[in-house]
Structures are given as structure tokens and as C-alpha cells.
Amino acid sequence: MKKETVTSVFTYNSTYPCSAEELYLWHSRKGALERLLPPWEDTTVLSKKGGIEPGGRVVLKIHAGFVPLEYHAHHVENNYGALFRDIQEQGPFSSWSHSHFFKDSNGESTLRDLVEYTLPGHRLLPPFIHTHVRKSLARMFAYREKTLKQDIALHNRCSKTPLRILVSGSSGVLGRELIPLLTTGGHHVWTLVRRRPDVDNNEIYWDPEQGILDEQELPEIDAVIHLAGEYIGLGRWQEERKQRVIDSRVNGTELLTRTIAARRRPPKVFLCASAVGYYGNCREEWVDESHPGGRDFISKVCNVWEGAAEPSLKAGIRTVYMRLGVGLTPRGGGLQRILASGPLGFIRRFGSGKQYISWMSTDDMISAMLHCVTCETIEGPVNIAAPEPVTNLELMRTVAKVTKRPLLFPIPSTILTAIYGQMASEILLSGCRVSTKKLQDSGFTFRHPTLEIALRSLLSKYDL
């Protein structure tokens, strides 16, 4: 007698402000999977071949606790505008099938996700394991729904016309999140890389140190988003490293702006990364874009960084200096380091804890970049940060509250400066409280206006 196969079924229904065809097309574009991967899960796309049509394959690196595993997905069924289905070829499940059904409904569209899966030892597992899996799926699909709705709303405002966009710094934390947002909106993206380029993947070689960027290699482009620059916020600042930080920003910006300014048809807009560190230590004072630059090393870096974009201005290109706050994501940067350091709890504060942090979720940050590309009224400096800065003490308290971990001892400023020197004084112990009125007045809306909302979304710390 044939042994009966036991399969669990999970369904999730959601509604979106677009047609079923538009929703299907979003899922078919490059970057869709990356946009839907929950940030709290340590998941990496290792390889992709093809799209959602039958024969397409994806390999993911996932984790079962601390154990890394590979998940191999194979797309096996597709009906344009109506459905596609993928199955697990190799991975942690005994079987897995995920079907996506798209349907028009009263001027909107519905998406029905149907997941059929079998766990190893399915019949023998205790009920709490099955409950845990279902809750994990519910959290994942709730995140997907919210992210997708917000992305579609953003693209309805900013992506009505597909643009040709050149991006530098695409391998950084922000670059890795920005590219999928742009491509799923229907934009065509080229990236500058400092290794052998994959021309089939729209990569173009450049070497800012040697002044190498072949203008003939560049396609006709509408916009440039320049993010490249050596990371500044880790370890002590030796004089050699400080010079590398400056050179990586000035050389790259000058090379890029000279090149695009000399083109027969230059892009309409150039976005240059900078930072709220431009203002220096402002303590509790609110500062806007008219505030003068500070006297710190970081202020100097931002000042010369923005100044290096002069060729863009002279060529009549709309130039935007994005003074970025502290980007929050579990995938990298400060938040990742805070979470990694606190399995038993978190440092209560650094120094006095009164220093202000102008933070922003990376989803809001990359959304603001697309907004700046398409909003023709924005030019010059603009603060890219959340509307409610918090103190260092408030940040650590909120992280502890959301993750339900205790606050531990504070770290005196003397210890931080002894270990990290000038870097501690200008990053860990310095404060900047920026106004985002210019960004808001241009029509930008925030996904995560408060720190707690951002952390609960990024870390899946909400009740379902």
C-alpha cells in the first residue's frame, strides 16, 4: 500500500493599488526577490538564472539557526499576468511549492500566495514546530505585503517613465538595496565597478585612483546616483586612512562629474552622497541645509566631497548633495553591529548618551534617492534622514525595548576615546539633529517616521 504523503498548506491573500498585469510584471523584474527578502533573515542570493518563466533557477544562502544552508529554487509554471510557481530542488524542506495567483478586483489587484510544504519527519514533529513555521511564514508574507505596497505607491509617484540610471558604490550596503528598488520600478540601471565588468549585467569598469573611466563605455543616461567612497566609521583614524577617505570621495566624484559634464547629452540630474556629518557636532541644536559646515574631520570630508561635484553644476546638471543620516538595517552598518554585540543585552549609552543621532531606515533612504531623482524642485543640499532624530540613549533604549533585551552598563567617553581616538569623538560621541523640512516639503513621505516603527519592521518585532 502506498504511503500517504503529509503536506501542510499555507495561504496568504493581499491587495495592491495596481492591475494584476502590473503586479505580475513587478515580480518578473530583476531585483524582485531581493526586495522581498526579510531584512531580519540572514539570506543571500548566490546565483540566478532566468526569470519567473519555467526553467528559471535561484540559489539562496539561508540559515537554520547558526547553520548555513543552500536553498535551490526552480520555476516550473507560468501564465503571463495570472500565475507563476516555483519549487524547492534542494533545501531544508522535504518538499516546497509556492504558487502566486494574480487577479484583477475592483480597480485593484489581489495576490494569493499558496505554499505547500513538507518538513523532514513531518508526522513526528511536535505541534510547536509546525506553529513556529506557520508564524515565520506569516511574518515573512506580512513583510512582503507591506514592502510591496509601499514600493508600488513610490513607483506610482516616481516611476511613471522608465529612466536610464548610472550608479556608483553598488556593492555597498545602500547600493545593494537601491539597485533592486530601481529595477523593480522598471528603470534601467548600469553600475560602475572596480573589477572585471560583467557587461551582460550592465557593469562598467572604472578606477578613480588612476582616473580611468571611458566615456565611450557609458550609455545614454538620464540620472547618476553616486554613492562610492571608503567606509569611514570603523576603527581608529590614522593619517594615511584619513587621506584615503578623502581621496576615495574627491577622486571618484571629480572623475565622474567631469566625464558626464563633457558628454554631448549629459544626464539631467546628478545625486552625490554626502552626510549629516557636514554640520559637525551640533549638540541639541536643530540644523537645516543653510547651516554652515562644522570644523571636524568629517565636516571637511563632506565639504570637499560636495565641492568635487563642481563640474556637474557648471554643466547645468541639476545637482543634489544627499546629506545622509545613519542608515538603519540589520544587513549592515551601525544597527548590524549593535545587534551582533548584544546577545545578552545592549550598552546603555555611549558617554553621556545625550548626543543626537539623525537616523533613517535604509528603505526610506533609497526611496528618498529615487524621489530626488524624479523631483525636479530638489537641488543643492538636502538632509536625508527621519523626521524624529533620537539621542544615543533613546536609540539604545528603543533597541532594547523592541528586542526585549536588557540594557547593561554605559561606556564612559574616556574609554571610547582611548580605544578609537578621533573616530570616537566625531562619530560615537558627537551629535547632529537635522531638520528634514526641505525633503518633506518636496512631497516625500516616510515609511518609518519613528525609530520604534522602523525597528519593529526591520526586525519583525510585531504581533501577528
Q: Strand portion, in percent?
A: 25-35%
Instruction: Indicate the low-confidence ranges by residue numbers.
Output: none
The amount of helix comes to: 25-40%
**Overall 3D shape:** globular
Q: What is the average per-residue confidence, as pLDDT, rounded to a whole number? A: 93
Q: Please report the number of helical segments.
A: 14
Q: Tell me about the largest β-sheet.
A: 7 strands, antiparallel
> Rg to the nearest angstrom?
23 Å
Span from first to last CA?
41 Å
Count of beta strands: 20
Strand order of the largest sheet: 1-7-6-5-4-3-2
Class by alpha and beta content: alpha/beta
Would you mind describing this structure in some detail?
The protein has 464 residues and is an alpha/beta fold. Helices cover 34% and strands 25% of the residues. The chain has a seven-stranded antiparallel β-sheet with strand order 1-7-6-5-4-3-2. It has a seven-stranded parallel β-sheet with strand order 10-9-8-11-12-14-18, with helices on both faces. A two-stranded parallel ribbon has the order 13-20.
Briefly characterize the structure:
The protein has helices at residues 20-28, 32-36, 127-158, 173-184, 239-261, 297-307, 310-314, 333-340, 362-374, 392-403, 413-420, 422-428, 437-441, 451-459, and strands at residues 8-16, 44-49, 57-64, 67-79, 83-90, 95-105, 108-118, 164-168, 188-193, 203-205, 223-226, 269-275, 286-287, 318-324, 326-328, 356-357, 359-361, 380-384, 390-391, 433-434. The chain is of the alpha/beta class and 464 residues long.
